[in-house]
Structure formats: structure tokens, C-alpha cells
């Protein structure tokens, strides 16, 4: 059966590879026809005579345009500027291969040219109304624009260099060079981010922690919240923005430690085709395509596609399979009015990783005489074979399906102001049944692991509308850059389960109360050897082998290919129908939650000589309702419980910056965030979720941060160095009091520092590096009875004290680029609780090394190689508070054949 499955997968890979190849050839033939119309000097033929309706005439250098040109060589970026501006941009041949950071934002033509030349020591001069000449700067002349990528949101009222907070933009070039295929892989280039795991909700999807705070509900796409549980891809991502520290003014609710925003690929006014086919070790196969076409002088279309089929290095049976498409269309109705649209679809079918159990579960003695083989450990994962798979290969799965539609209209009010309206609808489904390596009953002490079935059947849909007005101008002698806006959103979740269980041979099939109602058996009947009553530790491993449904496997030699025994039910729902075994049934008894939010916000940066004052404020009216399963659905016999929660949230940011020179910014800032109960919409591990009685009456968790920092441009503006020192204090944390009651009176504190450098140290050497130190402790953790106060001063979960990331690339020749990465983090706690020897869980620190090389045969073809985790380091990427931790992939080699036309 395994052989047939592999053959089917191979045929699928070959068919999809062939399809991508035919698509690429067809597009290239079309491009070749276009190329034939170019003249001998390489200039394009005259553009189409289709024109945009004009409401004004202005000098080309002063007209304002919206740019979204990615980083590339200076020749490529200049060609894109030619298309966007409709003018000739001449670059000396010997400088065309120099790196350019690209152009982003609403800029005049002169500003766009300056941005394109960041870090190049080149200048741009309009020699006529329709011609620009690029030339080398005169000796001693300076470039004063940072080479770092910029933030895309209109809410940011200053360049990245002058923004008074810790922000990192991961550009597409870094995503590509690091061979990142998912958001989790891309975020390894940003220190200070850890990843959590869980039991329910979203245990195996993206759960980033920024400065120790769960950021799953603070993840955005194109500036709009994307809360649906999933594992995010990057095939349609232009850049990833990471904001550290409370971001309530920008992100709204939550964002206590920061937020993440993914910028989607949008259509541009140029023609290109990029394609990649990448085979690798561990049965890795991936293909991507990204094609853009200028349809007319006022409309463009783009299509990004992806297919991935891969096992995971160092892990038996774990597998990832996904494919997706993302078309986009951009067009201008007038010189002032522009539209962007995007549709995103991705489907995945994975076999999840059950993880590795911790070595200190609660101990219970068995009464059947089985020998104990392990003693209580110190709380780290067990030292077992890294390939150990504690799941069912024939049963476990994780399926997701994501569909989103995005539209944006932008109108230029004046030469220095715009109004933008954005709308996004998204729906994500996440369905899974997977085995968790459950240590809660202490079976590992006897060399056993219970494969507990975790399951979920859920969807989330969101409707979000934003309106922003942004611009700049003077009030008296003070220059202001401002942004104001409003947002209205409605988010809904539907969370149900499957019925999955093992067949206990001692339990008879019983009647049911409706069609296909499962009978979920129990295990605590009799001991399989002595016939005595089963002790607590044996409730999940009392009956071993096939007789117990193979739900218990050997700790040191797990057998992932075991047959499994599933739910048993009557086909006709009564006592006489055929018995159905080994089935996974949808319960269709969902809980529901709806969140409605109405928000207004405003930001302003004022320049007073060498000082810059920045302020922001946001108000959110947060209204949510949680509903338990409805009476009469399946076996539900009680009336539903409806739990509402209503809060008015106000968050702020205030900052002052001093600029001793144009290159330097020294700042101090204060900011806040608020996280109300039910914030995660039931999509994550939320201790304040509305499914827990009484949580709706608790006040929002509030975080306040003070940060001082410095940003400085180096090497003539080619690189940006940053340093920041911060302290975050969180109040209203939900804790258990000494009398075992729950109250929102807990507190925690995080003191630390962030350092980074991004850009080019010289014309050939690019770096993207950072270091983060965090001293994150629980200052009032509560605790019932004798445990009261024992956790005070202890670390809180998913917060490494030290973490670092260095990605570095060097051009040995014009054709050969080499480099790699060094990534690491210190010890991470899933739980730092000294109450008992069983309650502390942690994973050790690690250092990982990656290598990279790329050879460009010509301007169209490149061969790239990546060796990830060179030392085959066995380290843990996700730590749960109990039960298990998840291993990172082992050594992985990949080759990518990249084409560009």
C-alpha cells in the first residue's frame, strides 16, 4: 500500500511539473514575441495607445504615483520605473547589476528615483521632461535615504529610519535566499520570536509569540486581521513586517507583544515571469510561478501559483502537501484614482507531527506488575530516537482550505494626500485528527505512550472594511505627516469536533439517540492481566496491542503503521443496524462566536527643527457573543448558553525623537495595548476564552511599554543599524487565587533589548541580522493553596532569554553569490512552575547553521542551492505547557532552478 501511495504521489508530481513547464513555455513564447518588437538599443516598442482619463497635467518629476517595485538589480528596478512613469531611465551598463532596494509607497517621480538609488552612491537627473540619467555621485556627496525596506501601511507617518519603535521588514530577497516556504521559516530571521503548541484550537498551525505574548490573533494580511487558524505560506508574499512591543494603536485589540503583517503580491505596470522548480532531500518537491502582464497602459494583471509536496527531515511519516493560486488585478480609472484587487486560495493536506513527550509526567503506579523503566526527569523532552512517530500513519491528517478576496481603492486628493478604502473577506477551514503523545497518565515510566486523538472541525470567516486618509502639510512653520481612519469588522467562528476513539473489547455496542451517533468507549474497566480494577495510570494503557485498538505504543520503538480502532456506531442509529467500526464521524455540534468591532484612529508626526513628535490614539468598540451547541443538535439535550462581552478599548502611542543628523534618530516612546476576553475567537490557546464560565466579566488584559532606542544609517545609507531598550508591564492577567477562585489581578514584566543591522555593508555584502535579550518574569502569578506565590519571579512561557539571527550574503563575482545563516535561541519554558517536580516543562537552547549559494548563468537563469540545518541539530521549535514538544526539521538540502523573464 505504501508503494502504491508513493507511485501516486510521484505521478502527481510529474504531472504538475509538466503543467508548470507548459505554462512557463507558453508565457515565454508570448514574451519572446514582445521582445522581437524591441529596437536594437533594447528600448521597448511604443506602449499601447490606451490612455488613462486625465484630470490634470503636471511636471513628470512632481506627479505622485503609487509604487510597489521589489528589490532587484538596478537595471531591473530602472526598467520597472520606466514602465510606471512612462519616461526613459538610462543606467550605465557597468552599474546595471548593482543591488537596488526597490520602490514602495506613494511618491513623486523624483522621490521614487531617490528611493531606487538608496545605498548605490548614484544620483538621478531629469535631463528632459521624459528622460532621466543615472550617474555616479560626485566625490563626497551623500545618499541620505536608508536602504531598508519600508512599511506599507499609511498609518506609519515616517520612514522606517525615523519611526520610534522596533520594526523589522523581511523583504522577498531574504525570504528567497533563506529558502523559506512558510511564515514560520521566514520568521527565523527575526530574533525574539518563539512558537507555541497546544492541545485544541490551533495546536499545529502558526502560533508565534512576540516578546512572550501570543501573536496568533495579531497576525494581519495587507493591514487587516487574519485570525483564522492555519499554517501560512509565503508564495504570495512581497514582504513580512514585524512590529515589536504593544501595538494597540496600529493593530487594535490584542498585540500585547507586537504584531505581524504580510504584504501580498499585487499586479504592477510591467511584464515579467518568474518561475522556480525546487527538488530536495526528504522527498521535497516545490514549484512556484509568478507572472505579471501590463494589459494596457492603465491595467495590469498578475498570477502567483505554488505546489509543494514534502516529507520532514528527521521525522518518520510527517508530511506536508499544499497548492495554491493568487491572481491580482490593478488598474487606474483616472490619474488620481487607482484600484488593486487580489484573490488568494490555498489548500493543504498534511500528516501532523505528534511531538516528543516530556520526561516528567505525573507518576502513578501500575498494579499489573509491569516493570518501571524510567525515573522522573527534569522537565525536558525525552531522549528518544528523533524519528520516533507516536501517531497513526493511516489515520492522522490535517486539512485546511483558505479563500480570501481583497479590494482597495485609492484616490489622490491633492499632491500630498490620499484617501484609501480597503475591504477584505476571508474564510478559512481547519480540520484535523492527529495523535498527541500524551504523558498525562504517567505511562512513559513504563515504556508506553498513549496516542490520544486530538480533533477539530472548524471554520472562520471575516469581513473587514478600512478607510484611511493620509498626507502631509504645514501648519504655520511646523511640518506634519498625518493619517486618520476608521475600521469596521465582523469575525465569526464555528468550532466542532470529530468522534474518534478506540474500541474497548469489554464494552458492548449500545443504542443511540440519533442517526450515526457514535459510541465512544472507555478504558477504565478491568486490567488486561489480573482482572483487577484499573488504577489511574492505566486508564489509557490498560489494554495493549490490537485488543486495545493499538492506542498505546512502545516509547522507544513506536509503530506508526499500526492499524487503529475508531468510533463504533450503528448505521441506522438504533440497535439493529450494521455496526460501523474504524470510522471518523463529524459530530456537528458546534460552538459559535461572533466579534463585531468599530474603530477610529489617528496618527501625526510633527517636525520641529531636529525634533520629531509622534502621537497616535485608537478607540475600539468590541462586542462579542459566544454560544454553546444548540439544543436538539445530535445528542445535545440542554439549552445553549449565550455569553456576551462588551468593552470599549482606548490605546495610545506617544514618542519624541531627536535627529542630530539626517542619518540618525534617537527616540523614546510609550505605547499600550488591550486584550479583551474572547479575543482569539476560539482559534488558539486562550486562557480568557469565553468558553470558560466567568471570563466575560473579567477586565481586558492591559500592557504598557516604555522604549528608548537609536537608529543610524551606515555606509552611505546602504545599511540601517538599530538598538532599543524596553520594559513592558502587563496588568489584569487571569490567575488563580489562594482560595482557588479566578481573578484578573496578575501581573508580569518583560525587560530587554533589541539590536539589528540590515542592508549592504558594501556593494557586494548584504546582511540581515539581529539579537534580542529578554528578562520576562511573572511578578504576580497567583496560585491556589500552598502554591500561592511560588511562581512569582519565574519565567513566563515561550520567551527565550537570548536569541539571535544572522543572514549574510556576499557576491564573489557578478554571477556567484554565497552566504548562509546562523540562528539560535536559549532555553524556552513551556511552563516554569516549581509547584511540583512534574509541573516544569522546557526545551533546551540551540544553534543552527544554514548555507547558501547561487550562480546566475545569465539574466534569465539562476541555480540556487541551500543546505538547511547543516549540523543536523536536533532542537525543538515549539514547546507546549504540558505533554509534548515539537522537533524542528533535520538537515535538508534543496536545489532551486530559478528563471526570470
Characteristics:
mainly beta; disordered N terminus; Maltoporin, Chain A; 3 domains; Ferric Hydroxamate Uptake Protein, Chain A, domain 1; Phage tail protein beta-alpha-beta fold; 22-stranded antiparallel barrel; 901 residues
Characterize the structure shown.
- This protein has 901 residues and is mostly beta strands.
- It is 8% helix and 48% strand.
- It is built from six helices and 48 strands.
- The strands form nine sheets. The protein has a 22-stranded antiparallel barrel. Strands 11-10-9-46-47-21 form a six-stranded mixed β-sheet, with no helix packed on it.
- α2 (74-85) packs antiparallel against α3 (109-116).
- The longest helix has 34 residues, at 2-35.
Topology readout:
Elements: H1 2-35, E1 64-69, E2 72-73, H2 74-85, E3 88-90, E4 99-100, E5 103-108, H3 109-116, E6 122-128, E7 131-136, E8 166-171, H4 172-177, H5 183-186, E9 193-196, E10 208-210, E11 213-214, E12 219-221, E13 224-225, E14 237-244, H6 248-251, E15 258-264, E16 272-280, E17 284-294, E18 299-311, E19 319-332, E20 337-350, E21 356-357, E22 397-414, E23 417-438, E24 448-475, E25 478-496, E26 498-499, E27 518-519, E28 552-554, E29 567-570, E30 579-583, E31 585-586, E32 591-608, E33 611-627, E34 642-658, E35 664-675, E36 701-714, E37 719-736, E38 742-760, E39 765-780, E40 802-811, E41 816-825, E42 828-831, E43 841-843, E44 846-856, E45 861-868, E46 876-879, E47 884-887, E48 892-900
Parallel strand pairs: 3-7, 9-46, 12-15
Antiparallel strand pairs: 1-5, 2-4, 6-7, 8-14, 9-10, 10-11, 12-13, 14-15, 16-17, 16-48, 17-18, 18-19, 19-20, 20-22, 21-47, 22-23, 23-24, 24-25, 24-28, 25-32, 26-31, 27-29, 29-30, 32-33, 33-34, 34-35, 35-36, 36-37, 37-38, 38-39, 39-40, 40-41, 41-44, 42-43, 44-45, 45-48, 46-47
Domain TonB-dependent receptor plug: 160-258
Subcellular location: Cell outer membrane
Protein name: Catecholate siderophore receptor
Amino acid at each position: 500500500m505504501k508503494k502504491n501511495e508513493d507511485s501516486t504521489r510521484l505521478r502527481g508530481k510529474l504531472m504538475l511539473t509538466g503543467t508548470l513547464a507548459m505554462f512557463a513555455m507558453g508565457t515565454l513564447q508570448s514574451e519572446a514575441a514582445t521582445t522581437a518588437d524591441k529596437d536594437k538599443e533594447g528600448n521597448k516598442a511604443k506602449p499601447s495607445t490606451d490612455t488613462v482619463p486625465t484630470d490634470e497635467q503636471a511636471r513628470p518629476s512632481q506627479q505622485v504615483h503609487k509604487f510597489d517595485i521589489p528589490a532587484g538589480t538596478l537595471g531591473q528596478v530602472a526598467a520597472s520605473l520606466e514602465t510606471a512613469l512612462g519616461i526613459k531611465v538610462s543606467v550605465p551598463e557597468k552599474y546595471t547589476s548593482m543591488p537596488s532596494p526597490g520602490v514602495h509607497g506613494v511618491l513623486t517621480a523624483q522621490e521614487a528615483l531617490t528611493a531606487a538609488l538608496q545605498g548605490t552612491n548614484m544620483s538621478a537627473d531629469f535631463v528632459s521632461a521624459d528622460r532621466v540619467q543615472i550617474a555616479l555621485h560626485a566625490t563626497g556627496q551623500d545618499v541620505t535615504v536608508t536602504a531598508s525596506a519600508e512599511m506599507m501601511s499609511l498609518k506609519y507617518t515616517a520612514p522606517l529610519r525615523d519611526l520610534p519603535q522596533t520594526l523589522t521588514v523581511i523583504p522577498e530577497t531574504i525570504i528567497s535566499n533563506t529558502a523559506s516556504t512558510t511564515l514560520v521559516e521566514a520568521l527565523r530571521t527575526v530574533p525574539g520570536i518563539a512558537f507555541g503548541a497546544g492541545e485544541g484550537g490551533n495546536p499545529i498551525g502558526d502560533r508565534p509569540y512576540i516578546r512572550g505574548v501570543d501573536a496568533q490573533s495579531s497576525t494581519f494580511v495587507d493591514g487587516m486581521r487574519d485570525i483564522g487558524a492555519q499554517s501560512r505560506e509565503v508564495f504570495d508574499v512581497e514582504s513580512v513586517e514585524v512590529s515589536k512591543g504593544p501595538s494597540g494603536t496600529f493593530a487594535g485589540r490584542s498585540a500585547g507583544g507586537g504584531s505581524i503583517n504580510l504584504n501580498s503580491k499585487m499586479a504592477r505596470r510591467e511584464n515579467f515571469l518568474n518561475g522556480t522548480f525546487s527538488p530536495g532531500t526528504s522527498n521535497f518537491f516545490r514549484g512556484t510561478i509568478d507572472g505579471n502582464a501590463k494589459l494596457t497602459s492603465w491595467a495590469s494583471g498578475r498570477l502567483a501559483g505554488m505546489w509543494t509536496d514534502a516529507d520532514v527531515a528527521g521525522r518518520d511519516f510527517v508530511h506536508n502537501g499544499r497548492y495554491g493560486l493568487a491572481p491580482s488585478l490593478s488598474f487606474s480609472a483616472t490619474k488620481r484614482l487607482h484600484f488593486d484587487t487580489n484573490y488568494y486560495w490555498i489548500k493543504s493536506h498534511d500528516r501532523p507531527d505528534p511531538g516528543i513527550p516530556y520526561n516528567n509526567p505525573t507518576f502513578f503506579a501500575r498494579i499489573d506488575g509491569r516493570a518501571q523503566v524510567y525515573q522522573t526527569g527534569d522537565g525536558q523532552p525525552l531522549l528518544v530516537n528523533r524519528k520516533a512517530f507516536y501517531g497513526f500513519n493511516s489515520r492522522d491528517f490535517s486539512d485546511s482550505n483558505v479563500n480570501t478576496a481583497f479590494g482597495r481603492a485609492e484616490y489622490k486628493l491633492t499632491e500630498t494626500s490620499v484617501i484609501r478604502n480597503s475591504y477584505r473577506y476571508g474564510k478559512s477551514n481547519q480540520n484535523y485528527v492527529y495523535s498527541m503523545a500524551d504523558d498525562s497518565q504517567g505511562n512513559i515510566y513504563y515504556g508506553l505512550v498513549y496516542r490520544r486523538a486530538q480533533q477539530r472541525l472548524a471554520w472562520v470567516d471575516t469581513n473587514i472594511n478600512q478607510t484611511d486618509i493620509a498626507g502631509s502639510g504645514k501648519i504655520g512653520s511646523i511640518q506634519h505627516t498625518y493619517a486618520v481612519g476608521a475600521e469596521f469588522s465582523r469575525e465569526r467562528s464555528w468550532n466542532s469536533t470529530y468522534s474518534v476513539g478506540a474500541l474497548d473489547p469489554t464494552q458492548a455496542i449500545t443504542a443511540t439517540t440519533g442517526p450515526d451517533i457514535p459510541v465512544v468507549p472507555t478504558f477504565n474497566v478491568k486490567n488486561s492481566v489480573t482482572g483487577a480494577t484499573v488504577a489511574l495510570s492505566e486508564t489509557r494503557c490498560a489494554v495493549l496491542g490490537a485488543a486495545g485498538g493499538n492506542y498505546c505504543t512502545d516509547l522507544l520503538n513506536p509503530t506508526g503503521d499500526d492499524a487503529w480502532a475508531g468510533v463504533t456506531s450503528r448505521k441506522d442509529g438504533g440497535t439493529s443496524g450494521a455496526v460501523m467500526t474504524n470510522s471518523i464521524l463529524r459530530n456537528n455540534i458546534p460552538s459559535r462566536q461572533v466579534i463585531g468591532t468599530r474603530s477610529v484612529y489617528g496618527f501625526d508626526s510633527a517636525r520641529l527643527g531636529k525634533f520629531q513628535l509622534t502621537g497616535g490614539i485608537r478607540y475600539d468598540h468590541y462586542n462579542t457573543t459566544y454560544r454553546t451547541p444548540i439544543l436538539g443538535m445530535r445528542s445535545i439535550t440542554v439549552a445553549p448558553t449565550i455569553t456576551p462581552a462588551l468593552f470599549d478599548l482606548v490605546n495610545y502611542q506617544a514618542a519624541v525623537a531627536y535627529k542630530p543628523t539626517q542619518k540618525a534618530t534617537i527616540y523614546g516612546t510609550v505605547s499600550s495595548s488591550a486584550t479583551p476576553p474572547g479575543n482569539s475567537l476560539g482559534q488558539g490557546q486562550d486562557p480568557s476564552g469565553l468558553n470558560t464560565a466567568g471570563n466575560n466579566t473579567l477586565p481586558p488584559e492591559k500592557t504598557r511599554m516604555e522604549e528608548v532606542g537609536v537608529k543610524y544609517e551606515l555606509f552611505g545609507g546602504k545599511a540601517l543599524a538599530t538598538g532599543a531598550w524596553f520594559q513592558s508591564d502587563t496588568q489584569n492577567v487571569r490567575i488563580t487565587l489562594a482560595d482557588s477562585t479566578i481573578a484578573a489581578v496578575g501581573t508580569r514584566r518583560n525587560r530587554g533589548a533589541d539590536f539589528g543591522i540590515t542592508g549592504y555593508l558594501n556593494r557586494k555584502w548584504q546582511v540581515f541580522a539581529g539579537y534580542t535579550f529578554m528578562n520576562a518574569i511573572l511578578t504576580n502569578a497567583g496560585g491556589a493553596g500552598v502554591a500561592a506565590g511560588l511562581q512569582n519571579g519565574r519565567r513566563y512561557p515561550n520567551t527565550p532569554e537570548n536569541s539571535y539571527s544572522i543572514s549574510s550574503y556576499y557576491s564573489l563575482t557578478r554571477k556567484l553569490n554565497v552566504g548562509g545563516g546562523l540562528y539560535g535561541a536559549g532555553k524556552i519554558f513551556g511552563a516554569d512552575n516549581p509547584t511540583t517536580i512534574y509541573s516544569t516543562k522546557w526545551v533546551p537552547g540551540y544553534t543552527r547553521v544554514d548555507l547558501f549559494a547561487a550562480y546566475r548563468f545569465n539574466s534569465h537563469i539562476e541555480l540556487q542551492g541551500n543546505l538547511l540545518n547543516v549540523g543536523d541539530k536536533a532542537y525543538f521549535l515549539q514547546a507546549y505547557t504540558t505533554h509534548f514538544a515539537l522537533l524542528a526539521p533535520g538537515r535538508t538540502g534543496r536545489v532551486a532552478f530559478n528563471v526570470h523573464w
